[in-house]
Design brief:
The chain has three helices and 20 strands. The chain is an alpha+beta fold.
Length: about 300
């Protein structure tokens, strides 16, 4: 009996020590991937804000799924073609159309960069999830955590701006740090001339409430993480989509968005990925395994 009691006491002491020991810090991990999606079409439809109401919206520029219109559903999108480079990406992406002196300007490039970073779990978007990022009615600068303008080019990490800047040729070194040519100082690092173009950036929220695929304002079912940690109200961590739309101009002074001015930048996403492909990508990227979305599966 004394032997059994000794074993039990030792086990209890060990458990108490384990309970009192500090937990190992959680590790932030995960890879990222991107999908480039060519311009598809322009229309005044919006299947999230004005579903089944064709022509009700301001003008939008669409990427990815070629069939997106006011009547689009996940099922209809899955049956259509896409302009995206990632295999299985038949999702719909759209932004307000950009005008220069009142004339529509089509973008030269659209990139959707999926950031798959987190601590414990990362989940693929649920099928049919609908998200609007940014404020289409804003008349003042929005948070740069959500949207901003910049000058972009090959290997350039540009400064952010709340209004459309004037871009042009800059001198950049391999780390992407640059100064305008008029103020360049001699550098030890090699530099090169890079032509930059006007870009608008929109970041989507990366935390989901776990139940709703949409909400009345198309935003409150989602939330932004802080240092990749989600709030308790939106506990499900999903990929963060960083949207970059590049336009073939350098002067942003005469630019307006169809939603009004230069402060109303926003972007919409309707998840119509092949769900099995998306789930495999998310699992592989989060586990730090190779996750090239262009590879055949």
């Amino acid at each position: 009996m004394r032997t059994i009691a000794g074993v039990l006491l030792a086990g209890a002491a060990s458990a108490a020590l384990s309970a009192g020991a500090p937990a190992a810090p959680q590790k932030l991990h995960g890879n990222n991937f991107f999908t480039n999606c060519r311009f598809s079409h322009v229309s005044t439809d919006d299947p999230i804000v004005h579903p089944r109401m064709p022509g009700r919206s301001h003008s939008h520029t669409f990427f990815g799924n070629v069939s997106t219109d006011a009547y689009s559903t996940r099922a209809s999108l899955l049956a259509a073609r896409t302009t995206c480079s990632a295999r299985g990406d038949t999702a719909a992406y759209w932004v307000p159309t950009l005008f220069v002196n009142g004339r529509e300007l089509r973008p030269a490039k659209a990139q959707f960069y999926y950031v798959l970073r987190g601590y414990r779990e990362l989940h693929p978007f649920p099928p049919g999830l609908r998200i609007v990022a940014g404020d289409a009615s804003s008349i003042r600068p929005q948070s740069t955590r959500v949207t901003y303008w910049a000058c972009g080019g090959p290997g350039v990490h540009a400064r952010v701006s709340s209004t459309a800047p004037t871009c042009g040729v800059i001198r950049a070194h391999p780390k992407g740090i640059f100064k305008p040519c008029t103020t360049c100082a001699p550098r030890r690092l090699p530099v090169r001339n890079v032509k930059t173009f006007l870009e608008v950036h929109v970041d989507f929220p990366d935390c989901w409430d776990g139940t709703r695929l949409d909400s009345p304002d198309h935003k409150s079912h989602m939330a932004y993480s802080r240092n990749y940690r989600c709030p308790t109200s939106h506990p499900v961590k999903v990929p963060l989509i960083r949207t970059t739309i590049r336009y073939p101009i350098v002067d942003g002074s005469a630019v307006t968005l169809a939603s009004g001015g230069q402060f109303s930048a926003h972007a919409d996403f309707l998840n119509a990925w092949d769900q099995r492909t998306l789930a495999k990508l998310v699992a592989a990227c989060f586990a730090d395994r190779p996750c090239d979305p262009r590879a055949r599966r």
